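Researcher: I'd like a candidate sequence for this fold, 424 residues long. If you have to choose between options at a position, lean toward the conservative one.
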């Protein structure tokens, strides 16, 4: 069997798998929204010169940054797609904000079709893009194969790939080599090497991560203007345990117990990553005999020594403005970590555990410069929280140091805009 026949057979079987799976996917609550657009049942995406695909809300924010800044010499239509409802909301806002007459840019947003090769061909023939841009790790075999068959140029920007992902892809090395993009702009030398290993193409280079371009410091919020001042006494000793994942809850409970023992008057703000874990936390705090109050039920000032179990959305940034230090979760269990740059925007030093694979793009320099702290276990995290909170640096100094750090990290958006113009 020749290699080309092997590849055609693999593509055929991949397509059969999608045809069998699609009827069942409609039962998925997350995929049911926009299902007709994902299957191209009643309508096709509009024509566009450039098609940008962003998996979910995080990648969509990168696209928003690009669309906010890009300016073209000739009128250029962009199609922005995503796989999630949150991502679509972000892209729709990005498209709505564009003023076409000033930058020669127009845009529309919709769901990305399922990766069936037949659907990919149908969508690409409707859109007729001159260039497809995939954000970060969007390696869709059916879509990339269709782009290759139809002669559509593809580049991957802000590209990142873990060693584990590369190992999975390398189970089919010839296939991925056959659908390789024309160019990859990776966010680190290590990521560039992984893409080079997978695709074996020459046009692989590095770029600053666009996420740094949209990262910065926030304006100071005076205590009297802070929405949470109604529930916190002035200068309350306040520590945040934020974005806590289920897999690390028992270790975080030890943090609460340790903080309570060492600093009996400290108020702890406990923010579960997912609200459906609130009841589980109520049970754990009760069983441990720890005093706590539900955020939604607070009607007066929070008593010293209590844990506030946060069951209200959208208040973490206000909380950062009042805190002395913050632990950012997803980092005491191997689940990838959460964004620990957010506290820095408010002048608060973040502490994390050993697991932060989703944010390795930030780099070790942020720890070497002592802007953030990374510890090997919950006991190390506890000691750091106690140490930092005892002599918490002034927020203005933390923000000044953070801005200085960001200066050398920015420029990714400009690199991508240049790549779009170059490839068109």
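Model: Candidate sequence:
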């Amino acid at each position: 069997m020749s290699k080309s026949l092997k590849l055609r057979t693999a593509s055929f079987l991949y397509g059969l798998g999608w045809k069998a799976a699609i009827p069942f996917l409609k039962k998925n609550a997350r995929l049911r929204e926009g299902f007709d657009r994902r299957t191209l049942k009643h309508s096709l995406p509009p024509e566009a010169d450039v098609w940008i695909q962003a998996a979910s809300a995080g990648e969509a924010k990168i696209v928003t940054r690009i669309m906010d800044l890009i300016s073209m010499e000739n009128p250029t239509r962009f199609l922005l797609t995503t796989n999630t409802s949150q991502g679509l909301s972000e892209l729709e806002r990005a498209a709505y904000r564009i003023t076409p007459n000033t930058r020669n840019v127009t845009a529309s947003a919709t769901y990305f079709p399922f990766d069936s090769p037949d659907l990919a061909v149908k969508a690409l023939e409707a859109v007729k893009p001159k260039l497809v841009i995939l954000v970060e790790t969007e390696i869709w075999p059916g879509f990339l194969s269709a782009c290759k068959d139809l002669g559509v140029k593809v580049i991957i920007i802000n590209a990142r790939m873990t060693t584990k992902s590369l190992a999975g892809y390398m189970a089919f090395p010839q296939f991925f080599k056959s659908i390789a993009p024309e160019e990859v702009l990776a966010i680190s030398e290590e990521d560039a090497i992984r893409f080079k290993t997978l695709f074996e193409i020459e046009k692989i280079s590095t770029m600053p991560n666009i996420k740094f371009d949209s990262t910065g410091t926030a304006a100071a919020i005076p205590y009297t203007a802070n929405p949470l001042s109604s529930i916190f006494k002035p200068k309350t000793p306040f520590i945040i345990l934020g974005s806590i994942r289920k897999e690390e809850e028992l270790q975080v409970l030890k943090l609460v117990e340790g903080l309570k023992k060492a600093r009996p008057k400290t108020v702890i703000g406990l923010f579960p990553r997912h609200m459906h874990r609130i009841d589980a936390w109520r049970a754990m705090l009760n069983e441990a005999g720890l005093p706590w109050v539900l955020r939604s039920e607070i009607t007066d000032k929070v008593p010293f020594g209590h844990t506030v179990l946060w069951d209200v959305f959208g208040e973490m940034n206000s909380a950062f403005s009042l805190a002395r230090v913050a632990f950012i979760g997803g980092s005491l269990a191997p689940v990838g970590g959460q964004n620990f740059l957010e506290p820095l925007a408010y002048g608060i030093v973040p502490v994390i555990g050993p697991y932060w694979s989703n944010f390795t793009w930030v780099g070790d320099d942020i720890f070497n410069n002592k802007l953030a702290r990374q510890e090997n276990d919950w006991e190390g995290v506890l000691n750091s929280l106690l140490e930092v909170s005892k002599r918490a640096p002034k927020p203005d100094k933390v923000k000044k140091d953070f801005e200085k750090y960001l200066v050398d990290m920015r420029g990714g958006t400009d690199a991508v805009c240049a790549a779009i113009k170059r490839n068109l």
